[in-house]
Amino acid sequence: MSANETAKLNSSGGPLFRRPDLSHEEFAAAWHRHGRLALPWALQFGVREYIQIHMPDPESLATSTTDDDGTVEAKARRIIMEADGVAIMRRYGVPTEKGRLYFNNVILKDERTFLHDESGAGAVKGDPPIYDVPELHVDVWREMALKMGGIEHGELCYLLNTLN
User: Fold this and answer.
1) Enclosing H/E stretch for 16
2) End-to-end Cα separation, the chain, in angstroms
3) Which of the 8 DSSP states describes residue 58?
4) How far is the C-alpha of 32 from the C-alpha of 120, rounded, in Å?
5) Cα-based angle 19, 35, 117 (whole degrees, multiple of 5)
6) Where are the beta strands (DSSP E) in 27-98?
7) pTM (2 decimals)?
């Protein structure tokens, strides 16, 4: 769908966490493949940007609570230190029934092979939740992740913007 004055650009995303049985490297490889799997859906159903920000292996980062002032931002920094990545998607409109079927049967099914149950579009929160992620705008997550050493992979973003 092309952007027009009546369509609203919706942004979603946030931190992602790998399944406990996967290494950081296995997660990164699976997430790259996942982006390619999602591309046909993205092109057909109004996605303008899909950005993957791959974080350094959380086990390699030194944990520090010196800046823990109890704010939402401090909590978000702690979460990003544990995250394996941050995903951002911007799209126009809502997918049709056909789009929802592909999303549910292909994209969500693939996510379950590499994402923690409480992570990603198909997240189901436990009680109590393992990952209690604060509601922040996706651009705040993006900025924080990049400041903390994340590497942005935007080849899908470039491809989507050139084709749409």
Assistant:
1) strand 9-16
2) 7
3) G
4) 14
5) 25
6) 47-54, 85-92
7) 0.81
